Amino acid sequence: MKIKQLSIFLQNRMGSLSKPLEILSDADVNIRAMCMADTSEFGILRLVVDDPVKGKEALEKNNFLVKITDIIGVEMNDTPGGLTTVLKIIRDNEIDLEYLYAFSHEKEGKAILLLHSDNIDKLISALKENGIVIVPSDEVYNL
Question: Residue 136 gets which letter from DSSP?
Fold first, then answer.
């Protein structure tokens, strides 16, 4: 149920994003979703890949600082208000989100929302109790 996400710490310099992506490509690791957060000094590249362990090993072998973090994926309607519906449940259950990102996929009218909280189990329970579909990790890895 929980998805393993790679968090890669990068210097905020021109071209710093291309090297880890080349390493993953050379290791035959496929990226399913990604987001980038940056400050003036550094950035954090968050990736969901088809093989997190293989991806982490390849990056660490090339001197990247990589952390594996548990996140969850939920299915939401890919319509106006789809995200708001999920966020209202999270707010009503007083769960603090650290970050989120989303992507669409082949299911018509649906998108996958990736979420991280310091209390993943409480997040899963609250969403399930309110009818939100938790996307299995294998489904995300194999998209």
Answer: P
57 membership: H or E segment, kind and range: helix 52-61
Q: Compute φ and ψ for 136, nearest 5 degrees.
A: -60, 145
pTM score of the predicted model = 0.89
Under DSSP, the state recorded for 80 is: T
For the segment 33-48, what is each residue's pLDDT rounded down to a tens digit? 999 987 777 889 999 9
Q: Could you tell me the domains of the chain?
A: 3-70 (3.30.2130.10), 71-141 (3.30.70.260)
Report the C-alpha gap between 19 and 129 in whole angstroms: 42
Cα separation, 130 vs 33, in Å, equals: 25
3-state helix, strand, coil in the chain (%, to 5): 30, 40, 30
